[in-house]
Amino acid sequence: TGTWSPALDNTATTIYTFVPDTTQPGQACAVNETMTITVNPLITPTFTQVDPICNGEALTVLPTTSNNGVTGTWSPALDNTATTIYTFAPDTTQPGQTCAVNETMTIKVNPITPTFTQVDPICNGDVLALPTTSNNGVTGTWSPALDNTATTIYTFAPDTTQPGQACAVNQTMTITVNPLITPTFTQVYPICNGEALAVLTTTSDNGITGTWSPALDNTATTIYTFVPDATQPGQACAVNQTMTITVNQTVIPIFDSVAAICEGESLTNLPTTSANGISGTWSPAMNNMETTIYTFTPDASEICAETATLEIAVNEIININLDLRIVVNKLDHNQSVAVYITNAVGFYEYKLDGGLWQDSNLFENLIVGKYSIAVRGTSDCSNESTILFLLIDYPRFFTPNGDGINDTWNVEGLESQPEAVITIFDRFGKILSVFRGDELGWNGIWNGKSMPSNSYWFKVSYFENEDRPKTLRSNFSLLRE
Questions:
Q1: What is the pTM of this model?
Q2: CA–CA distance, 178 with 145 (Å, rounded to integer)
Q3: Which residues contact 25 (CB under 8 A, 6 or more apart)?
Q4: How far apart are CA 423 and CA 432, in angstroms?
Q5: How many CB atoms lie within 10 A of CB 267?
Q6: pLDDT single digits (tens) 31-56
Q7: How far is it, in rounded angstroms, from Cα 201 to Cα 220?
C-alpha cells in the first residue's frame, strides 16, 4: 500500500509515482513505482464555412470528411428555408478518431422581409399613397395600381438587382377602404311663411351625430347642411348631407274684377281657379239682384293660400228717355258722326252697331251705309236709346265716254230709298237732270246733247233716319277727253 503523486490530470500525459507505505509490515523494502498515463488531445473536425444563402436557394450537401480528415455524419437534415445549426458527429470507431469531438456549423438563410408602416383605413375617395422604399431600406414597386374606392391587397416586389436586396422577399399590405356613410333624415314637410319650424335633429336616422347650418329660417326656402362629427367612433367616413326645407310664401288668389251689372242681368259663375292657379270655391251663391261680396276659400290642397273676396256691384235699373240727334260733320269718303242728347242729364256712353261702349259721342272714319248708335247712362243702369241713320257719299267726278267705267253719276247709299230725289244743275242753276235714288243716275246728257267737261252741282233730298228728311248740296266734275 502507498500513495500516488501528483494529483490526477485528465488533460495532459503525466508520469505518476507510487510511494509504498514502508511503515506497514512487510513493506519496509518496497520501492517507488511510476506509471505514465497518456492523455491524447481532442481532435476537432474543421470545415470550410458555408456562405449565407437566400431563403429557398439550393444548399449543397455538407462534406462527410472534415478538412483535417475526420469522417462522420451531419444532423439535422439540410433546410434552405431557415438559419440552422448543423452538428458533425465523428465516427469514433475509425482509427485515430477516438478523440475526435463533435463540431457544429451554422448556415445562415437570409429572408429579407421589407417592413412598412401599415396604412390606416381610408374613406372611399380619400387620397392614397404607398412608399417605394420600406422602413428597412428595401426599394421596389407595388401592384396593382392604387384604388381609393375599394379595399385591396397590394404586393410590394423588391428590386432584387439592387445591392443587398438579393434575398428581399415580396411583402403585402391590405389597405381598407371604408364606404362613405351618408346620414339619412326624414324630410321636413314644406311650411308656410312664418310657421313654426322644429329644430333639426342632430342624430341622423342611421345614427350619425353632427351639426346643422345655417340657422333655421322660417321665412325663406333654405338648403341646410349637416356636418357629421368625424371624431366620433364609426363616423370617420360620414359625409355631409343637405336638406332643403321649402317655405311657401303666402299666396293671395287673384281674380279679375267683375264689371258691375244691372239688376237681373245674367251673372256668370266666378272661376274656381284664380289667375295665379289657386283652386277653391266661392260663397255665397251668385246673386244678380243686389251687390254682394263673395268669398273665395282655397282647397285644402292649396298650401299657404289665403281667402280672397270679390265684390260684384248690381246697379238698380233707372229708366230714362233720351231725345237723340246726330250731326254728320262732313260728306266724305271717311265721315265722322256725332250724336247729341237734347235732354241730357249726367254722363253717358255710346256704341256703334253693337260694338264696344265708349265715352266719346264721336264716331270717325265711317263709310257709306246704314248705322245705329245706342246711348245709355254710365253712373247707373239705364235703358238704351237708339238712333238709326244713313250715311251717303258721291263720286267727285265721272267720265261718260261709253267705256263702261264711270259712265254715270249718282249719289252712293240711296239704293234703299227710292223716294230720294237727286237734281243736277249747271253753274247757272239750270236743271239738267232729276232722278230717284234707286235709278241709274245721270249720263252727262241734256236734251240729247253731251254736256261738256265742267263742274256741275247737285241737290239730294233723302231721309237721314226713319223720320228725319235731309237735303245736301255739293258739286262734282264731268270729264271728257
A1: 0.42
A2: 18
A3: none
A4: 8
A5: 15
A6: 999 999 999 999 999 999 999 888 77
A7: 20
